[in-house]
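Complex 481.
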Amino acid sequence: MKFKNYIPKILLISALLGVLNTIPVFSQTGSELFIENRCSRCHTIGRGRFVGPDLLDISKKYNKQQVEAWILNPEIVYSQTNKKPYNPGYPPMPQLDVSEHNAELITNFLFNNTIKKQKENDGVIKGILVNESTGKGVVGNDIYLKSFIGDRLTDEKLQITEADGNFSFNNLSWVNSYSVKIKHEGLEYETAKLVFPPDKGFIDLKLPLFETTEDSSGIFLNLNHEILSVGEKTVSIAEIYDYENRGNKIYIGKPGDDNKRNTLKFYVPSNSINLKYVEGLDQENVVRDKNIIYDSSGFPPGRKRIVLAYEIPLEFGKNEIKKEIVSDVSTLLLLVDDAKGKVDVSTLKELEPVTIENKKYRRWTGEKLVSGSGYSITVTNRALSIEYIDLFPIIIFGALFLSVFIIGLITRAEGSGANSRNSLLARREELIESIIELDIKFNDKKIEKKEYKESRLKMKGYIAEIDKLTEDIRYPHNDTE
Ligand code: HEC
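Predicted structure with heme C bound:
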């Protein structure tokens, strides 16, 4: 234990760098589209049977048009062949909402025949743990590999880095997803989920390490955007925080009462429901204590964006939402869509309204707000009680969509749209899942046809907007507005 004092206090960040190295985010190869459009959740190419058939020799079985039909709408195949499922022993393939352009690119990729048949469970996740201050590999540090099927953790393996900081997990199943977790000085860091690209048998990570500090003087909240849309039964709120660590060490906060360290904190009204960590926060690393959410993850040098969303149920008449400032903030901006209910805001200054994506938003702002101050938002609800439709994604999606849109604007100016793009794609997945849920509800006669059609159309509209937007982020314009 004694010699521990000689080790510089080092920590590493979630291996964002490594992940970005392995999954290029701006180019769109067939292999990436295969992952992004969820094909890889059900199919392998040359790695054996999964939920659906192996697609290795698909060009021998079908022509391109037939494969595109499968991708665009399997129901076409089913009605033409009068067989559902078509391949005995498999469930039917669901419809996926892939654009024609992407279906063509994926088909070309499948017809390329560059992928060879591979051995079962032959995947490798390897990498190196590097001390960013010395540039040297870190020896003897614990590295865990977590395996998942869907969101379910199925296995956890431990390794210790070798002399040069290297590690390598071999013989991994192709169809699981993985994350790499590092424990150091009592703190844990974890990469985003990793999957094997269909055309590459290994994932190579570079996990950087920084020294740690408990000193918060380098931590700044540059901006807090809050987007509020009034609905008929609830108010949806999305909050974006743009934090910056201007120091050169990982900020780890001080140990709290429960001995868990906390770094950043966020205020959430106590009557909020459906709280979602959209970006930058991880359920495992947060503790909620009444109105405050504490994040316990380390904060490496650089920017960190956090997006969370929730709803507040509305009662008939006046509803007051109290907001407290819990961290000093340079600029607070509140955008309000109050088409469905009047909104008043105390303390903050009202600006001219803006129009974003054909919707008008009222705006309020505050500069240099200090911890301990606050403001309140009053929403007057005149809607008569309407059955609350339990389709969370549609209700809150408007606010989320806008938050991501604004993030797109912010990040475009900074030249890094990777995170917002990922969170958009995650939303896209959720929407597709909600459409499937909606279809099931309709089939089970749990909702009316009119409502079903309207909701489905709305969700498809959002998907189309995401596709448009991610294209925008992928190929950034030069203008900065
Ligand atoms: C939710 C799981 C799932 C997803 C996601 C999925 N598929 Fe499928 N797919 C299946 C299943 C199951 C079958 C077999 C269905 C049948 O035989 O009726 C299938 C069949 C196919 C077939 C025909 C295979 C054959 O041998 O006849 C092709 C081609 C195909 N899928 C391509 C894709 C592509 C490309 C994607 C991504 C855009 C994709 N699938 C996404 C489950 C899925």
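The pocket of heme C is lined by residues 37-39, 41-43, 51-53, 55, 58, 61, 67, 70-71, 85-87, 90-94, 96, 98, 106 (CB under 6 Å).
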